[in-house]
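Quick question about two entries, pasted in order.
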Amino acid sequence: MPLIKFFGNLRQLAQASRLPVKGSSVRSLLDELCRQNQALSDAIFIDGQLRQHVRVVVNGHDVALEQGLDTPLEENDQVAIFPPLGGG
């Protein structure tokens, strides 16, 4: 089962730094995750689309440079979700 790693404020929303979630694609994995946690859904998606500055990375590769949310997943993949970063 793919393992999701959470960063930034997403860790607090998930109440975990890592969480195994079923999914054969990034989209199905995120759908399952968001069904379980509305706060994460609100932080990751807006109007059914990935928020602009949220980054999803599979095994070190940004899915935006792959097949987007349709990027397929394997059993032992690691998915990292990064919230928008701020600072100054």
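Here is the second entry:
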Amino acid sequence: MYRSILSVLMIVAFCAAPAGAQQWAAKMFETTKHDFGSVARGAKVEFRFKLTNRYLEDVHIAQVRSSCSCTKARIEKPLLKTYETGAIVATIDTRAFQGNKSATLTVTFDKPYPAVVQLQDSVYIRSDIVFNPGSVSLGEVDQGKPIERKVAVNYAGRGNWQVVDVRSDNPHVSGGVVETGRYGGRVSYDLIVRVDENSPVGYLRDHLMLVTNDRRMTQVPLLVEGRVVSSITVSPASLFLGVVHPGEKVEKRVVVRGRKPFKILSIDCDDEHFKFGTPADSEAKSLHLVPVTFIGGDSAGKVARTIYIQTDLGTTTSDLPAYAVVADQDE
């Protein structure tokens, strides 16, 4: 019934008005506009226009094109199943272009119905500040291990130009500068970027903000990205159990992998409709296949829960988001 209702509504919308027919696709995006602000020449400047498939049908992104050669666009994941997330990634070429730039990214969908969504980005690329390298790319970082990187900051312009502060919105990412040269209108610094040992597991994508004494443009961002990895990984990253009727049972398997042999001590969820294998019987090994069973409840609608997996590797707990849809019995 959910699938048929959705299909009818989308067909009606598509036939009624071309503008309205696009709304199902636009509603999947978290935002359709992004302003990068003022950035240094050579800096890595990238933004993910995130989208989530909110529907039961598969969504397919056929193509994306940019109105300006200053912006390259790519599709992170062309096919999105129910509740899967993806992104249109916009990357600015800060080496070949300077000054004010903007672009329109046209995203074309061909499934479940044709639709077009337009995304906009804008940026001001400074010619007087250069980062080398253009971003801090950490790759994979072990949880609990601090890490440090150095970036050269070079400026050409006023002789009294200074970096007066380095700010971060992430409490686990910080930075400091050491002046390495000043001659005429040229100034250079070493920017020391630090990620502390308490950074949580997951993708790290933040900006350090260099605050300068230039009143026209006081702040210049530097991208810091990487992935903090746990000694335990769970696949898939999120578990969709499908569409079930009340009382109907569905079972799927989850892969729990470690860098060394381990035992699963417990698997918990605050919903009695989720059942798991008995972890107490498991032996220490590097890979465990955990059966997850979901039994449809009496209430129709989307079910979203978190499964907690506790191992004998210290205090490491892996959180697994789990989703299902319970349909009415007469559907």
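Reply: The domain at 232-326 is CATH 2.60.40.10 (Immunoglobulin-like). The first strand starts at residue 33 and ends at 41. Hope that helps.
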